[in-house]
Design goal:
The chain is α+β, with helices and mostly antiparallel strands. It is about 20% helix and about 30% strand.
């Protein structure tokens, strides 16, 4: 029994840098722009132009023939609309539909976050601005054997605190509740909560951490259920 693995820990110990987000490539429409983001603005049609743009520390970009445009905290969708409207004043083909405008991120800014508590390598980390709590845990080598996988806390510079349960990710690959990090966030792994050892004729014998509502059926379901040879009339 003592040799049972802690469910979920091996996901992090077997990981590599492949689990870190790239600093280039497409971003979602709701991505918020910030200082040091780099992008390329392309006009095609009647006008063929390419402009490399960098968001300044003050949060603006300078577009030739248009001037300074404030873009900090705009989403990519809002940026496209704003650029189209501003460029239409300089290029009439945009309004007529004979000139198209496209803007894409070429290099993401980095943010500094902190990972503390029961992790293998606590410290400060520079991550891409789209990084999530899960990415931060991979960077820090994952939880220790004493770390909680069910109530990871993120403390914001504003004083707000949010938490994440990793079991949906570990069991089903569900990242819908993963938290996108912000500059200065502190990711804190508290000590483990209640744990149970599940062994015998189950699909995945292991040590499982409980949340506040967990019961025996929940633990059995988490383990994958009974093995084919299990005697379901006798559970100790």
């Amino acid at each position: 029994v003592n040799g049972l693995p802690i469910f979920g820990l091996d996901v992090f110990t077997r990981a590599s840098s492949q689990f870190q987000p790239l600093l280039s490539g497409p971003v979602p429409d709701d991505y918020l722009l910030g200082p040091d983001d780099q992008m390329v603005l392309i006009l095609t049609g009647e006008v063929e132009l390419t402009h490399q743009l960098v968001v300044s520390r003050e949060g603006f970009v300078v577009v030739p023939d248009v001037g300074r445009i404030s873009v900090a905290n705009l989403t990519m969708a809002d940026l496209r609309l704003l650029l189209r409207n501003r460029l239409a004043n300089a290029y009439s083909g945009i309004t007529r539909g004979t000139t198209s405008v496209d803007v894409t991120i070429t290099r993401l800014r980095t943010i500094q976050i902190y990972v503390t508590g029961e992790v293998a390598q606590a410290g400060a980390y520079q991550l891409a601005s789209v990084a999530t709590v899960t990415n931060a845990l991979y960077a820090a080598g994952g939880p220790t054997q004493l770390g909680s996988l069910r109530e990871i806390k993120v403390q914001r510079r504003t004083g707000d605190e949010v938490s994440l349960d990793l079991y949906p990710y570990l069991l089903e690959g569900d990242v819908s509740e993963d938290i996108v990090l912000e500059q200065g966030d502190v990711v804190f792994l508290p000590l483990k909560g209640r744990r149970v050892q599940l062994h015998g004729s189950v699909v995945r014998p292991a040590i499982y951490e409980l949340d506040a509502a967990s019961d025996l059926i929940d633990v059995l379901n988490t383990s994958g259920g009974f093995a084919p040879d299990a005697n379901r009339r006798r559970v100790t």
